[in-house]
Design a protein that fits this description.
about 220 residues, alpha/beta, seven-stranded parallel beta sheet, 9 helices, about 40% helix, about 15% strand
């Protein structure tokens, strides 16, 4: 069970969860993508699936396979929304999520408050997501420290360029690696809303998927 976490909202966690899921599915891994942000659930919108049923139903005892939704653009993915779930839903659902036959990706809330702690408590490892801006990276360092304290140590990081101006505030991958104390698996090129991703975007997430699988997550 892999937490997709970062220190700031809008740093690319949900996009990374979804595109990493695509890459894992292309390798035949049957990933389950779980929205763990009960306050601001957004994964269902990115995936293009219904809001309910989802995590709340699994917390109530239903099997994930019976309620997970399949995105229209990829039959190999399964998605659970957090719509209608409460703060205790993920912990209650965790035993059934662990029975999933494939990797489970948790799209985590931003920050270091209680709602961000919950997913890290149930995850095995963490994939850090940050923009290449120094402020975002500083917040990701705090998330990395929290993940280590909760026994979900980061296995790698992804730098996601969320704005064309990110190039002006570039943090070298080596600087990010040293600050986060984990490898940088990929740096994902900026793609504006409405644009078709360039070939480098799926290639970057395939690289992340290989790193994840090499580390037996």
């Amino acid at each position: 069970m892999l937490a997709i976490a970062g220190g700031k909202g809008g740093c690319g966690k949900t996009t990374t969860t979804y595109r990493l899921g695509h890459a894992l599915a292309a390798d035949g891994r049957s990933p389950l993508l779980v929205d763990a942000d009960v306050e601001m659930p957004d994964l269902h919108r990115v995936a293009g699936v219904p809001r309910e049923p989802g995590l709340a139903a699994v917390a109530d005892g239903r099997r994930p396979a019976s309620v997970a939704h399949t995105p229209p653009d990829h039959r190999g993915l399964a998605v659970l929304s957090a719509t209608g779930a409460d703060a205790d839903a993920l912990a209650a659902a965790a035993p059934r999520l662990r029975a999933w036959d494939g990797p489970v990706l948790l799209d985590c809330p931003a920050g270091a408050m209680a709602d961000a702690v919950g997913p890290l408590r149930v995850a095995d490892r963490t994939l850090l997501v940050s923009t290449p801006r120094r402020r975002s990276l500083r917040d990701a360092v705090k998330t990395a420290a929290m993940a280590r304290e909760l026994d979900a140590a980061p296995l790698a990081a992804v730098l996601v360029e969320t704005s064309p101006t990110d190039d002006a505030a570039t943090v070298p991958a080596e600087t990010a690696r040293a600050a986060l104390h984990c490898p940088v698996a990929a740096r994902i090129t900026y793609v504006s809303s409405g644009d078709r991703p360039t070939r480098t975007v799926p290639t970057g997430y395939r690289r992340v998927a290989r790193k994840v699988q090499q580390r037996n997550i």
